[in-house]
């Protein structure tokens, strides 16, 4: 069975200073959709509070049998996932940006 996937883009910071505002919006979107994709290309800063939110969203999706995927990870997101040794933990495809020569 295939579901229409709703895509949301997160832009700017995903840090302790604004994660609470993102949390309610993203949980509401998860509740409203059978399948949700979060585009993380616009995240220019993320800290452990932002990472905790991503983990919470994955857990809630699993508990409610929803499909949640993260896509287009920005460099700050990739760097934090690597630092936390979580690059494969979410099960999402990671597309690494080209390095400048």
Automatic annotation (TrEMBL):
It comes from Methylomonas rivi. It comes from the Bacteria. Residues 1-101 form the STAS domain. PANTHER family: BLR2341 PROTEIN. This is STAS domain-containing protein. Pfam families: STAS_2. Coiled coil: none annotated.
């Amino acid at each position: 069975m295939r579901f229409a996937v709703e895509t949301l883009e997160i832009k700017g910071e995903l840090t302790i200073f604004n994660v609470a505002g993102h949390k309610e919006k993203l949980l509401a979107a998860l509740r409203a959709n059978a399948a949700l994709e979060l585009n993380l290309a616009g995240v220019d800063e993320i800290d452990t509070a932002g990472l905790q939110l991503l983990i919470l969203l994955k857990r809630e999706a699993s508990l409610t049998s929803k499909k949640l995927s993260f896509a287009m990870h920005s460099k700050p997101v990739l760097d934090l996932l690597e630092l936390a040794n979580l690059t494969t933990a979410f099960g999402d495809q990671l597309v690494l940006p080209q390095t400048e020569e």
